[in-house]
Amino acid sequence: MWKQMIPGLRMTLLLTVLTGLLYPGLVTGLCQIFFPSQSNGSLIVKDGRVIGSGLIGQNFTRPEYFQPRPSAAGSDGYDATASGGSNLGPTSQKLSDRVKASVEKFRKENPDFNGPIPADLLTASGSGLDPEISPASAEAQSPRVAKSRGASLEEIHTLEAQFTANRDWGFLGEPRVNVLRLNLALDQRFPLRK
Fold it and tell me: Stretch 126-145: mean pLDDT, rounded?
């Protein structure tokens, strides 16, 4: 019996060391060398303090900031420990009610915008923590932000353009704007009056 079990135990030990220690250690080391920011979470630091990640959405509710997509992560949303979508289907009354409430909230907060509301401002992403919005969503919020900051609409559009990332490799994904980075640039360029 032991004659048959010893090779199996050796193989288990060997594969555990290879796939559980050596391979992850090698990949982690290579990532630290070639992609240090990304492998450490794309952390954003301001005044020596970590204030967020470029990969995880945060909730901004004040009128002088661009607001992200709705979040279904956690009971209050934007909970990075509870990443996940709402799993509500197109026939769900709960989803319909939430979207209607989002439409009403958007119209109330952005009275100067009268076009169709971009879908990403009304629906949560699959993770519930999408850090980016579409350029159309940023443009829809621009009048409110410009008015709250005491800036011209053209200045806000110029800043949006600076923080709009194009498709990866020219064909993957969609153009997008990182909400946290754009809001930090707003604070720097158009500081809030106290």
Answer: 90
pLDDT in tens, 39-80: 888 888 888 888 888 888 888 889 999 999 888 777 777 777
- Do residues 63 and 141 lie in contact, with contact meaning Cβ atoms separated by under 8 Å? no
User: Are 80 and 152 found together in one domain?
Assistant: yes
How many Å apart are CA 89 and CA 76, to the nearest integer?
20
| Residue-range definition of the domain harbouring residue 132 | 43-189
Rounded to an integer, what distance in angstroms lies between the CA atom of residue 145 and that of residue 150? 8
Tell me, yes or no, whether 168 and 101 share the same domain. yes
Given a contact cutoff of 8 angstroms between Cβ atoms, the answer to whether 182 and 66 are in contact is yes
